[in-house]
Amino acid sequence: MAKEKAFVTEIADINENFPQWYTDVIMKTQLVDYGPVKGTMVIRPYGYAIWEHIQRELDNRIKETGHENAYFPMFIPYSYLLKEAEHVEGFAPEVALVTHVGEEELTEKLVVRPTSETIICDMYSRWIQSYRDLPVLINQWANVVRWEKTTRPFLRTSEFLWQEGHTVHATAQEAEEETIKMLNVYAEFAKNVLAIPLLLGKKSEKEKFAGAVATYSIEAMMKDGKSLQAGTSHNLGQNFAKAFNIKFLDKDGTHKMPYQTSWGVTTRLIGAIIMIHGDERGLVLPPFVAPVQAAIVPVAMHKEGVLENAESLYNRLKKAGIRVKLDATDNSPGWKFNEYEMKGVPLRIEIGPRDIENKVATVSRRDSNEGKFTLPIESLETEIPKLLAQIHENLYNKASENLKNRTRIVKDMAELEKAVNDNCFALSMWCGDPSCEAKIKELYQATSRNMPFDQTPVGETCVCCGKKAKHKIYFARAY
RNA sequence: CGAGGUGUAGCGCAGUUUGGUAGCGCGCUUGGUUCGGGACCAAGAGGUCGCGUGUUCGAAUCCCGUCACCUCGACCA
User: Fold this and answer.
1) What is the value of pTM for the model shown?
2) For residue A207, which nucleotide's C1' is closest to its Cα?
C-alpha cells in the first residue's frame, strides 16, 4: 500500500518533472519493459494492443486512399545506402552494420534498414517500365533500426515499429499532391482516432529528411508545451529515381524519370498519446485506441447475485461491440478503481448490491473529475458508446485548448526566449537563413518545427536577425 | 566520446564512514476475516551483496581492476 500511495505522489510530479512522470507511467502501467540491449524496448500486451488499434484504423485509411501493403527485406546492401549522397550522410552514423556471418566476413556489408527507400527503389527500378505502371502506391508495416545515442520508450528507441508509404508518380505535381494528401490523412486520423490536434507544415532545409526535396510534418504539443514530431511526409522529387535509375517510357515515346514520395508514422504516436492526454493519476487513453474501453468492477462480489449481474452485463456490452473487461479477481474494489484509472481505461462501471436493487450501474469517466453517476442498467449498450464519443471529444478539445493557450506570436529574440521558457510554441517570422535557425537552437534550445500552410504574415522582419522575413514558422523545444 | 551518479530478494531501498550472523517496505505463497476509493490478521518462500583480483582470522563494507545501467550534453521518427 505504501508503495502505491507513493506512486500516486510521483505521478503528481507531472508538472515539475514531466519526463520522469512519462517513464514511470509507462513502466508501471506495463506498456513496455526495457530490452536486454540498450535502447531496445519490449512492448508488452497492454501497450501492443494500443498499437494494434492504431494500425487497424490507419491501415484502413491508407487503403481507402488507394494504397496496397507489401513487405521488403530488413537487410539492405550497404552499397545501396551509398547511392544517394544526402541519404547516406543522414543515416550512416546510426545504422547497424552486419559485417559477419558466424566467423566469416561478408564481402558485401549489410545494413539493418533504418528506412526502406533504398531497397524499395531498387525494386521499383525493375518493376517500372511504362507510364502504365504508374502510379505505384505501396505501404509497408515494419520495424526499423536506428542506433540513437539516447533513448526514451516510444519516443526514441533503437528499434521501432512503423508504417512507411513509398509511392512513384509520373509528374512532380502528382508527387506533391500525394505528399500533402497523406499528411492530411495523418491529421484526420490523429484528430478522429487519437484525439490529437496537429500543426501541419513544411520543414526547414535543416530539418528535412535526408534525400528529400521537401519534408512536411505533423507536430503535436505535449501537455508541458514541448513539441513532438508525430509523423512526416516527404516529397522525394527525382533524387532517388536518379540514384536508382528508375525510368519509365511515357506516352510521348521518351524515357522520363518519375517523382517519388515517402511518408511514415511510428510507435512514437503512443508516446504522444501518453504525453498529451495523461494526467497526475496516470494514463488517459483515447477511447478508440484504448485496449479496454470499459472496466466492470463488481462490488461485494460474495453477495448474492452480484457476480451474475456483472457477468450478464459483460456479455451484453461485449455483444454490443464494446471492448469491455470484467475484473472478478479478489483484489479490493478500491484497488481496482485505482488500477484502471492508472491504466487509462476511459470508463469504469461499478455494479454492487445497491445498483442491482435500483436496476442501475454506477459509471465513472476517466477524462473528467465530475464523479460517479448512475445509468439504468438496461440502457448501457446505447449509453456507453455515446459516452466514449463524448470522452473522445473532450480529450480533443482539451488538447486543442492547450495548443491554443501555449502558442504565442513573437517578434524578436527576447519574446522568443520568453515564450519557450514559458513552455509555449513561438510562432515567428523568419528570413530563411539557416544561421538564424542555428542561433535560436544554440541560445534557447528551440528548434524550428514547421512552416504552416497558411503563411499569412504575423510580422515583417525575421525574429532573429531583423532582416526582411520570408516565412512564418514555429519554433519550440522538442522531444 | 565529455561530466556526474548507481549496482544488495521480483520492485524500491537501508547497511559501506568505523570490516564481525544478510536487513526493511512493497509484491509473492497459504489459511482466515473483509469488500461502494489502493483492507486486516497469522504463517511462509525468496539474496554466491554486478564481476574479478588482492589485504585480513574474517569483506556487501578496505585496495586495485573490470563490466553494466541511469542522468545531463552532441545525433534523431
Assistant:
1) 0.96
2) B76
